[in-house]
Amino acid sequence: MRQHIKLFxxxxxxxxxxxxxxxxxxxxxxxxxxxxxxxxxxALITIGFGIYLVKKNFLNRxxxxxxxxxxIMSIYFSLFFGYQVFKKVRLISQxxxxxxxxxxxxxxxxxILLIGISLFCVFCICYxxxxxxxxxxxxxxxxxxxxxxxxxxxxFLIMLVINTIWYSLISNNAIRDDILYxxxxxxxxxxxxxxxxxxxxxxxxxxxILTFPxxxxxxxxxxxxxxxxxxxxxxxxxxxxxFLLLTAIMxxxxxxxxxxxxxxxxxxxxxLFGIILEKFQLSVFLIILFIYARLSEKEEKEIEDLSLIxxxxxxxxxxxxxxxxxxxxxxxxxxxxxxxxxLFIGISVVLGKWNILITVFDxxxxxxxxxxxxxxxxxxxxxxxxxxxxxxxIRGDVFIWQNEANYLNILGLILLGLCTxxxxxxxxxxxxxxxxxxxxxxxxxxxxxxxYCYEAPLFNxxxxxxxxxxxxxxxxxxxxxYKYALPSILLFIxxxxxxxxxxxxxxxxxx
Length: 511
Fold this sequence. Notes:
This protein is mainly α. It has 20 helices and two strands. 42% of the residues are buried.
């Protein structure tokens, strides 16, 4: 009897997985021809991925120990997911690639039926991820110190006050793209964040899937409560604040020093993106979560793999950190890398992203025409702006860097040299190795590939954790010899960065 039940559940899950993949592929296709080709490829990969999950007894791990709260949350997210997908499918069927194939009543019935079938798979995935996260969180909460607790609560409350004032003062017209340091606040807030079926190219393959649970929560609150219009941006900003605060705490635990937590929290990228809406906050949190799990004394394989896959899903270039995944050696390590890579591809395809995955070939080329020396200028500006605010200029309706990769930032060059020295001195330190590899990737990214060097400081949050990590590892012992050195440096950084944020607010108030 148990075997029959298991077989029934496995077949149900397999069918649900396949239906989900084909529906999501429909939502991410732009032409009927592209849909036909991608549907075949999606189906074939999903069948293989489904067989793998069944063989690994995925459902047994999901339903091994059911928890009422996690079940309710999983059902809630699944139903909301289904509703959002239904709206997208209806839009496609009315105005898009299926408009001439199906009649209206049949389209509605088939959409509801197929989406309903897919929700079993969505529920299983939600429940499995919640199980991993809640188990990990329970362990980590036990480790929370009084200082970490105070840091998080006080930091959250301060940023809540600042963001409430900020978003109640500026108009909705100020939430737009490319007016502040090339930041895409509008696009991230109103496209990437709320639309579960959002797609563009391989750079952010399933970013919208990762942020969707947070949008579910806000949408529910907005339905229940009469919230002011600015609370949407406030909600997004505070989600970002949580990610940044947790990142700072994890860096403190990795380096085993409280000052690293404060240095990261008061650095310019953290202060800026604790207010301004962007996508890097989630990505960096997932990166540091992966590193934190990887470097912990007790191996946390599930959270390590999950955070690595999700960080690559948020910003695909984060996949390079996969070279540090798993603790195996030799051939077993390579097998571990291959497994995670195939899982990432399988998950991406199930989420309908086959068409998005192959856009990687559109970006396998250099971008821009800056000379090599100008690229170096851009990198030094990024290095410096990872700690203190850069010099700026206001050009019409644009608030931009004064140094548009046109001259050498001396502070940035010094910091690059100090980071290199720190690695050489601490080359046996695993965190130093990870930080330096990320720094080398950044140099390859901007100097070798010539990718958007003009906008290099836009990415400072994406790289600042590694820069600050190397600086801290290399020089904290010197600074700690002097009682007031670190507090004085932090005070200086806070003043400079706060004055810069005030100038940004004045600029945004013009709109």
